[in-house]
């Protein structure tokens, strides 16, 4: 109908002319009507052929649109991902991880949401992000939390502080000094409060903050000592601070996603690569 000739149709469909001719004769035989008149090598559609084409044309257009859609969603330049993580992971772990994965998925584009640990579950259940990395298991019925590496807690002190000579630390070692602590509803705040209860001591709180970056900035100004997760007080960001491992303080990192919604193929690939790459940090 479009090509007007058998040879043109064969070229358009990338098949042989005899194959097109046989198919056309078979269709006319099955329908019991002529769809074309043959005139000097050309095909002239009959009224019945024209009517059938009008019905088939939208279907053909939908097939073309489907092909365009398949090409669009599988092209690398359309790889867009939305990921969430707490601030403790956003300063080093996520930038490092994204760079490693993106090298294997060139052209991908990532939107990173930096959220408190306690807000991450809400973002995933509302489908505002594809998945998240967090330092706790939210234990939510709509979420799947897959355990990954362990990340330790460290004491953060100025280089000239009396505690800076220690190779390992306990909360009991720190509690005699001014401390920058955290709000009780934060993950670090809950860890510290439990530790204070276990040793039956009250800290000398100089400043209370919500985020570890802020705590490290306070320590840098001589306002006390604090606790943070590894990879927060990095030397390139806080050159005047020393980090000392805290004994028995490993915290599990989790990859968290919605358990009732399948990941797209591209998101799944990014997710699996991230889970593999992050193991090299442990």
TrEMBL record:
Which one of the record's GO molecular function terms can you name?
sequence-specific DNA binding
Q: Coiled-coil stretches, from where to where?
A: none
Q: Which UniProt keywords apply?
A: DNA-binding, Transcription, Transcription regulation
PROSITE patterns attached to this UniProt entry: HTH_LYSR
**Hydrolase is among the record's keywords:** no
Which named protein is this?
A: LysR family transcriptional regulator
Domain of life, per the record? Answer: Bacteria
Give the GO terms filed under biological process for this record. positive regulation of gene expression
Q: Identify the stretch annotated as signal peptide in this record.
A: none
List each copy of the HTH lysR-type domain by range: 1-46
Keyword DNA-binding assigned: yes
> What family, per the record?
Belongs to the LysR transcriptional regulatory family.
């Amino acid at each position: 109908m479009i090509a007007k000739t058998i040879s043109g149709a064969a070229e358009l469909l990338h098949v042989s002319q005899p194959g097109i001719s046989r198919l056309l004769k078979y269709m006319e035989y099955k329908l019991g009507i002529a769809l074309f008149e043959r005139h000097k090598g050309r095909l002239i559609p009959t009224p019945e052929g024209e009517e059938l084409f009008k019905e088939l044309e939208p279907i053909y257009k939908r097939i073309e649109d489907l092909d365009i859609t398949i090409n669009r969603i599988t092209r690398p330049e359309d790889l867009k991902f939305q990921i969430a993580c707490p601030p403790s992971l956003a300063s080093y772990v996520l930038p490092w991880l994204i760079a490693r994965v993106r090298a294997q998925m060139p052209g991908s584009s990532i939107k990173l949401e930096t959220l408190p640990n306690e807000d991450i579950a809400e973002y995933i259940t509302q489908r505002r992000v594809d998945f998240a990395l967090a330092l706790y298991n939210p234990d939510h019925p709509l979420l799947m939390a897959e355990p990954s590496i362990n990340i330790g807690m460290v004491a953060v002190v100025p280089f000239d502080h009396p505690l800076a000579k220690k190779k390992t630390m306990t909360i009991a070692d720190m509690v005699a000094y001014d401390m920058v602590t955290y709000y009780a509803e934060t993950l670090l705040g809950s860890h510290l409060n439990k530790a204070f209860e276990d040793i039956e001591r009250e800290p000398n709180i100089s400043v209370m903050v919500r985020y570890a970056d802020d705590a490290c900035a306070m320590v840098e100004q001589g306002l006390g000592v604090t606790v943070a997760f590894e990879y927060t007080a990095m030397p390139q960001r806080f050159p005047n601070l020393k980090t000392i491992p805290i004994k028995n303080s490993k915290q599990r990192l989790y990859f968290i996603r919605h358990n009732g919604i399948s990941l797209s193929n591209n998101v799944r690939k990014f997710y699996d690569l991230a889970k593999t790459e992050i193991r090299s940090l442990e």
